Amino acid sequence: MLAVTFETVRQLIAAGIVNGSAYGILGVAFALILGVTGRFHYAFGVLYTLAAFFAFTLFDRVGWPFWPAAIVGIVITVVMGVGIEAFVYRPLAARAGSNALLAVFVAALGLGIAGGNLIQIFWGAQTHSLLGISISPINVLGADIINIDLYSVIGGMLLVALLTCLLRFTGLGRAIKATRSNPEMALLIGVDPARIYLVVFAIASFLAGFAAIMAALKYSVEPTMGFRPVVLAFVVAFLGGTAKSPVRVFLTGIGIGLIETISSIWLPVRWTQLVVFVILVLYLISFSVNRTVFTRLSAALTGRA
Amino acid sequence: MQVASNYIDQILIFSIFALSLNLLLGYMGQVSVAHASFGAVGGYAAGYFALSHGWNVLLGALVGALIAGVVGAAVALPALRLSVEYLILLTLGVSSVLLGLFTTFAQLGGTYGLIGIPPASIFGHQLLQTTDWLVPLAVILAVVFLICHRIGESPYGRVLKGIRDDDKATLSLGKNVVLYKVVVFGITCGLAGLAGGLLAGFNSLATPSQFGFDVSLSIFAMVIFGGTGNLAGSILGAATVVLTKPLLEWAVSLAPETAALWRLTLYGLLLAVLMRLRPQGLLPEGLNVLKPATWRPSRSTNGSDEIVPTAVAAAAQEWETRLEVGESIAQEKQRERNWSDAPVVLEVTNLSKRFGSIVATEELSMVLRKGTITALVGPNGAGKTTVFNLLTGFIAPDQGSVKLNGEELVGMKPNRVANAGMVRSWQDVRVIPRLSSLQNVMLGVQDQTGEHLGPLFGNIPGVRKREQTVRETAMEWLEFVGMADFANSPAGALSFGQSKLVALARVLATNADVLLLDEPCSGIDTQWVDAMLSLIEKVREQGRTVCIVEHNLHVVDRLADHTYFMELGRITDQGTFQELTNSPRLAEAYFGTV
Questions:
Q1: B129 Cβ neighbours under 8 A, 6+ residues apart
Q2: CB contact (8 A) between residue B265 and residue A118
Q3: Across chain A, what does the average pLDDT equal?
C-alpha cells in the first residue's frame, strides 16, 4: 500500500475520470428518463449496444465514412428510444394505472432480453473492432491516456453542459422540469407531458448513443457490451439523484469511476467491481434505515435547506 | 426418456424458484431481480460441503437454504421502506454482490465455479440418471407448494396482500408489517436457496453463470407469465419458459445454440406483449384450476352510488323523521354535560411537532372521553390530519405525551398503537382493492391465530376455527354498515361511498376503544352522509370513543359532543359546537371577516 507511487495514482485518477465520465453520461441519461417519466427503462442497455452495432455495420460492412456512420447509429438509437416510449411504455402505463412502474419494468425487461438476443442472432456473438479513429497515445497533465479517452471526457462534459443549459435557460427545459416535478400541474400550464416524455427519451437515447460509440472505439463492439455500463448507470442515477441537476449526476459518475480505479490500489481487480455495488447497498441501507436523517444530511451537504 | 426427464426435472426445480418468488412478488408485492443469486447461495453451499466435506448434496442444499434464508432476511432490512424502483436497484446490487463474492473466492472455484459435485443419494440410492431425480424433485416441489399455499392462501396471506396493496393501511390495522416483510423475504430466499442446491446437485456443478442475472430474470418472467398471486400459475410459467427451448429445437429444427437465443428472444417479446394484453398472467389471481367456478373472473355488479344498500336507505329515512323533531339547545347543553362527566380515555398533553421551520403542531393538549364523539375542526392546513398521524405513531412527535387509559403511546410503532386500542381511518379510504369487502373487514380483526407462522403450520384445526369466528365477526360488521350484500365484491370495484362504509366496518372490526375517523363524510353523496352519521352515532351508543376530523359543519353539528378548534397547529378554542360557531374567531377562519 505504501509502495504506491505518485505516477500510479495519477494514472489511476486519469483512468477513473475516463471510465467515470462514461458512467456519468449514462447515469445522466437514465436519471433524466426515470426522474421525468418514471419509466424504469431497462431496455436502455440494448439501445446502447445497438448504436455501436449500427455504426459498426455502416462503417465496416457498408463502407461509409466513420462520422456519418456514427451519427446514423446514434439517430437510429434515438428513433428506437422514442418509439419504445410511444408504442410500448405509454400505452402500458396508461392501462396499468398505479402499477405502471412495475408493468413498464417488466415490459422493458422483456424488450431488453429479446433485444440482446436478437443482436446475437443477427450479428453473432463475436467481438468486432470499430476502427473509426486511429488511436494515438497522448499525455494529459502527466497521465498517459489515448486520444479517444480525451474526446469522450470532453464530449461528455460538453453534452452535460449543453443539457444543463437546456434545462435551465430554455422554455423546453423549464417544461421538462415542470413535468418532472408534477405532470398534472404541467398540463395545467399548457405543457403536454406525453410530448415532453418523447423529448426526454430522445435526449437520453442520444447520450447513450454517444457513450456507446466512444466505448466501441476504445474497446470493441459486442452483444454484451451494454450490460455493465448500464447497470452502473442505474447506480449512478440513483446515487446522484434522479431529480437532481445533470452536473451532479455526472460528477457522481466520475466519483464512481474514481472509486473503482483507486480501490484497485488496495484490492485485487476482481474485488473492485464489487466495491460499487457494496457502496450502493450500503447507501440504500442508510437511505432506508433513516430517510429523514439522510435527507437532512444531503440537504446540508448540498447547501440547500 | 432421458431427454424428457431432463426437462421435467428442470421444470420441477424452476417451479420451486418461481413459487417462492411468487410468494414474494405476487402476494407481498416486493420486487426482486436477485432470486437466482439466492439460489447460488444454496447451490454453492451444497457443492462446497459435498466436495470438501463429503456431505450428501441434498443435506448441503438444506443447509444452503438456511443460509440463503438468513441472507434474504438481512436483505429485507434495507428493503423495508423502499419503493419499487429502489427495490429493483437494491436487488440488482445484491445479485451483483453475491455473484461477485462467489466468483472471487478461490475455494469456490472462481469464475469456473464448483465442478464435479458428487451425485446425491437418498436412502443409500444414488441419483445418477435424470429419471432418478423425478420422484424426489416432485416430492420436494409438492412440499414447497404446500408451504407457499399455506402461507399465501390463509389469514397470513391476507395480511401479505394487504401489505402489497397498501402497507400503510395494513400497518394502521395493527399488523407488524416489518416482521412480515423480514419473515417472508427470509422464507422465500430460503426456498430459492433450496432450489439452487437442488439445481447444483442435479447438474453436478455450481457456476456463477448458472445463477446469473439472466436466470433471475427468467424466474421473474416465469412468475409474470403464470400470473402473480397464483401459485399453480408459477408451475405453468416455469414449464412454459423451460420448454420453449426444446420446442424450438423440435418444431423449427433449430440448432441448440440458436434455439437458446430464439427462446430468450421469444420470451422477452412475450413478456412485453403479455404486459399489454394480459398483465395478470396466464392464470390470474384467484383462479383455481380445480374449481371451474373460478375460471371466469367474477363479474360482480360494479359498485355505484345508485345501488344504495338497504341499511343505508333505512338510516336516511330514520334521519328524515328525526330532523322533523329537531334538537333544542337544552339537549345540546345536556350532551356537553354528559361529555364532561364521561371518564377520560385518551389524554394528549403538550404534543409538538416541527418539520424544519414549519410548525405542524404546537403544545397541543386535548382529551377524548368514553362513549362520546369529539370533533377536531379548523381551516385547511391547520394540521388536523397531522394530529391523527402523531397520535397513531405514523409521525413521531418532538415532545409531548399521548396516554391511552394511562398507557404512554408516544414511541410506539403504528401497529402497536392499534394493538393498544386506538385505530384510525383514512381520508382517502385505503381499502385493499384486490381483496373482497369481507376480506378487508377480516383484516381488521385482531389476534388472529393464523397470522402467526407457528400455529399456521402447527395448529391447523385451531387456525380454521379461529378463521371461522373472524369471518363471522367481519360479517357482523359488514351487516352493521349495511354492506353485507357486497361481501364478496372486490373492494376496488365498489363506489367511493360503499368503500367508505367498508373502511368503517374494517376500523370497527378491530374492536379498538378509540376510533379516529379522518373525514368520514367527505366526498360522498348526501344520502350516504346520513347513513354514515347514523352509524357513527350507533358506535357511540356502543360505548366507544370517537374523534372525527371533518370539514362539513353540518356533520360536526350533529355528531360532536365536544369540539376542538384548531388553527396553525394549535388548539385555539373548544366547547360545544354552538359556542364555537358563535365565536367570531371560527367564523373568521371559516368564512373570512365579514
A1: B2, B5
A2: yes
A3: 88
pTM: 0.89
Which residues of B lie inside 8 Å of A (Cβ-Cβ)? Answer: 31, 77-82, 84-86, 88-90, 92-94, 96-97, 100-101, 103-104, 214, 217, 220-221, 224, 258, 261-262, 264-276, 279, 356
Give the H or E element holding residue B515: strand B514-518
Closest chain B C-alpha to A107 CA, distance in angstroms:
4
- Domain layout of chain A by residue ranges: 22-245
Mean of pLDDT over chain B: 88
B160-195 pLDDT, tens digit each = 999 999 999 999 999 999 999 999 999 999 999 999
Which chain B residues are within 8 Å of A101, Cβ to Cβ? 84-85
Q: CA-CA distances (angstroms) from residue B61 to B54, B66, B144, B199, B588?
A: 13, 9, 14, 9, 72
- The nearest alpha carbon in chain B to A109 belongs to B268
For the CA atoms of chain B, what is the radius of gyration? 29
Q: Are B420 and B406 in contact, with CB atoms under 8 Å apart?
A: no
Count of CB pairs separated by less than 8 Å, A with B: 139
Q: Distances from the Cα of B148 to the Cαs of B17, B145, B458, in angstroms? A: 11, 5, 15
Could you give the CA distance from residue B23 to residue B25 in angstroms, rounded to a whole number? 6
- Quote the distance between the C-alpha of residue B361 and its chain's center: 30
User: Per-residue confidence at B299, pLDDT binned at 50, 70, 90?
Assistant: very low
Alpha-carbon distances, residue B66 vs B51, B179, B457 (angstroms): 19, 18, 18
Go through the domains of chain B in sequence order and give each one's CATH number: 2-216 (no CATH), 310-430+512-591 (3.40.50.300)
Cell of A108: 422493458
In the predicted structure, residue B324 carries a pLDDT above the cut 50: no
Min Cα distance B230 → chain A (Å) is: 17
What is the mean pLDDT of the segment spanning A64-86? 95
**The three three-digit cell numbers of residue B412, written as one number:** 410506539
- The vertex-B176 CA angle with B405 and B425, nearest 5°, equals 60
Measured in degrees and rounded to the nearest 5, phi and psi for residue A143 equal -95, 135
